[in-house]
Design a protein that fits this description.
heterodimer
């Protein structure tokens, strides 16, 4: 006959087993709904961020169009009008020169209008992809003439979800705005590195930099960028010293 | 068991290939029960079948659960298969000599399976189904958990009781095992029914 203590151990273990089993089932059900609610909350947050990003991008586009119309197209057309006003029937040679000048100006305006029209398309990011959209942003900065931007892409490009791309674009737009407005930088480098599992986006400038601790509670821009990065599952890092410029790194997992 | 077995086939044929390990377990179970009944009717020794069956059962349950866990935990489960096969074979050979009911083997299997089931239950995929009761893995894990938790007591004591009174031991074993088997296969049936894709159901990946 076997040792009777075997009975004792079996009964104790079986009782513990059943208690644990009940606890596991209750916890599993509770945890399932808890995770589900958290997931739904994240989805809602994502939708809100997406909507906000869309509106902000739209606002930025309108601002840039308004600026383009006022500073560039408006000026050129005014100049063309002046040329045409000063046409004289007596001096045909001078008039021809002025007329040719006006034609050149109008041609230039047509090109500018085409560029503006391109920017007006709301689905540029989904249509052309994130990289061309970022390239356009860099070109706009270059046009401003405040600083010298450099744009580099390395590695095989991976496809990113349109909504994610839109939020990334908005983060970059926000960062570029901060650099052009506050950094007093003369050089800007934007780098995209693709790997199998992630996309690393780095924006570095040689500006005045800033004190991260002092500024992190001031504006909503930095908070927006970190919040948006969190929502798309990306990691947002900022290295900012008071004198040596700023380096922003955004690491986005590719699923 | 037969209904669960047929449903497992239907589910696999409907494209839910992840249930193939369960389908294999149920096929082996059916074959095991038939062989045991045949050997029993001939008065031959059949206990050795349970020793071998436990190895297959654990391996295929593990293969099924491995599909729901992370890569790190997959490695642990693979390792546990090896540990269980070695332990179970050693117990069968040196302790039971393939002659007594493998209570310790099944209880070892039960402990491992219950740990894996608990992990799976606590980490069920929330994206596939609105409610937990529509989740096939919930029902399958729950059934296995209740079965192994419930039979822990009878498996542990069976050999001891069998030595005291063979008839009463078998009776007690059947009293405990029959409803637990019923619960296990009912859970399997519900799980398989939940897994059959319906045209009206929109599945989010």
């Amino acid at each position: 006959m076997r040792n009777p203590s075997e009975i004792y151990y079996t009964v104790v273990l079986a009782t513990i087993f059943f208690i644990v089993l009940i606890a596991v089932v209750i916890t599993a059900v509770w945890r399932y709904y808890y995770r589900k609610r958290a997931h739904e909350k994240t989805l809602m947050e994502f939708d809100n961020t997406l909507l906000q990003s869309r509106l902000e991008i739209q606002e930025e586009t309108f601002k840039s169009i308004s600026c383009e119309l006022h500073d560039n197209i408006g000026q050129i057309l005014t100049l063309a009008k002046l040329h045409l006003n000063r046409l004289s029937l007596e001096d045909t040679e001078l008039s021809r020169e002025r007329l040719n000048g006006a034609i050149d100006m109008i041609t230039q305006t047509i090109q500018s209008l085409r560029d503006v029209s391109k920017n007006l398309h709301a689905d540029t990011i989904s249509k052309n992809g994130l990289v061309p959209a970022l390239e356009t942003e860099i070109r706009i900065i270059e046009k401003l003439g405040i600083l010298q931007p450099v744009f580099r892409v390395s590695g095989p490009p991976a496809h990113l979800d349109d909504n994610k791309s839109l939020i990334i674009f908005r983060i970059v737009q926000e960062a570029l705005q901060n650099i052009t407005k506050h950094s007093k930088a003369t050089m800007l480098e934007m780098k995209i590195e693709y790997s199998e599992t992630m996309m690393k986006l780095t924006i570095a400038d040689n500006g005045t930099g800033f004190n991260w601790e002092e500024n992190k509670d001031k504006g909503s821009g930095l908070r927006n960028m970190t919040d948006r990065a969190r929502i798309i599952g990306a990691q947002f890092d900022m290295q900012a010293a008071a004198t040596s410029g700023t380096i922003i790194t955004l690491t986005i997992p590719i699923s | 068991m037969t209904v669960a077995w047929i449903l497992s086939f239907i589910v696999c044929m409907k494209g839910q290939r992840r249930f193939i390990p369960l389908c294999i377990v149920l096929t082996i179970s059916m074959a095991e029960e038939l062989v045991v009944a045949w050997l029993y009717s001939r008065g031959a020794d059949f206990i050795w079948i349970y020793h071998i069956y436990a190895l297959f059962e654990y391996t295929f349950f593990c293969i099924y659960f491995m599909q729901m866990v992370s890569l790190k935990h997959k490695r642990w489960i693979k390792f546990s298969i090896l540990i269980f096969i070695l332990t179970s074979a050693s117990i069968s050979y040196w302790y039971y000599h393939f002659e007594s009911f493998p209570g310790a083997n099944i209880n070892t299997e039960g402990v491992f399976i219950c740990i894996i089931c608990s992990y799976v239950l606590l980490n069920l995929d929330i994206h596939l189904f609105d409610a937990i009761y529509k989740h096939p893995d919930f029902w399958i894990s729950l059934g296995i958990l209740i079965f192994f938790g419930g039979t822990f007591f009878s498996n542990g004591l069976f050999t001891y009781l069998y030595e005291i009174d063979k008839v009463q031991a078998k009776k007690l074993f059947n009293i405990i095992n029959s409803p637990l088997n019923l619960i296990l296969y009912s859970c399997f049936i519900i799980g398989f029914l939940c897994a059959i894709p319906r045209r009206s159901t929109i599945r989010l990946s």
